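== Folding the chain ==

***
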Amino acid sequence: MSKKKRTFSAKFKTKVVLELLSGDKTQAQIASKYEVNPISLKNWKSKFLENASMAFDLGKATTGFKEEITELKKENDALAKKLGRTTIERDWAVGKLKSLDSLNRKDLVDFKLKNPTVSMTRQCEILGLNRSSVYYTPKPISEKDLKIMNRIDEIYTDISCTYGYRFMHQQLLEDNMKIGVNKVLKLMNLMGIQAIFPKKRKLTSIKNHEHKIYPYALKRLKINHPNQVWSGDITYIRVRGGFMYLAAIIDWHSRSILAWKLSNCMDTVLVTDVLKEAIDRFGKPEIFNSDQGSQYTSKEHTDLLKTHGIQISMNGKGRSIDNIAIERFFRTLKYDEIYITDYKNIRHLQAGIEKYMKFYNFKRFHSALNYKKPMNVYLMGMKKAA
């Protein structure tokens, strides 16, 4: 007997997203509390923020829908003359359905459909879904998985950042952790961790302009002044009861951390907020470098860089070492602060990282700067350039 699929009302989704945005609980804690898939939480948040502006401009939203309806009617009338109205309506509807993400398409499946001619199999075919995925019931992240994820983070930072999921699996087995190799790959993807080593380029076309990949601009570049090159990246941060993501921006010349933010979601909002804060506080760089993650290749992030006339640079595929300045900072942060502190909650974590950032920027000697302090080097360089 098939298990009944859970459905969530708009009111319920809004409540969960608002709790997620408050930042008082980790994504894992919220997912466990409401028994919702963490991926669903991320998608709900993105949808909520995407449409938030409508609350303050209902007239504009209505006008937009009217214009879209008018255009669709024109297209519909033109095509109806050739193929017939029934065919047009069917094709238009199927096209719209397939443009939705998988979670929204799953919500459209009717488990109690009275019309027997549209079976479950046919519904899934129309919606472009794998039938088994419709019956899947998401499970929150377990304590066992969190323990393994924390160990993966330690192995990646302490033993070798070149470990892919197979080597990582072997190390976990040696540490007496029972886990399959595919589960290791799944957890590493959730954490945003990949091995640092060069990979062969694949000749694949970029179909979506929003995900354009830009060339690496730092090769053989002499970096000799502040705001010449900034780098951004995201890392996994443990906290009691779950985990968070930390995004930060570093100035390559001075090694100063210009902006940072904690979030329970690794999404575009996180990286764009950090970039906006850095620009507001320190001006703009000549070049901004990042990896090829979807957060940094998103239209929102690249448009923000273009608006300020900042050259976009991205690591080569599989070459996190191209972003070595921020990678080394994250390693230092974890050794000096994260691994030696048991954070009781997110507020405790936030306060701990804020304290460390001030120490790192203003008091900690940096060997790459001839034992000068990062923010001193940054401010002195800006003073000379003025």
Summary: The first helix runs from residue 10 to 22. The mean pLDDT is 81. The chain has three domains: 10-53+61-134, 143-191, 209-385.
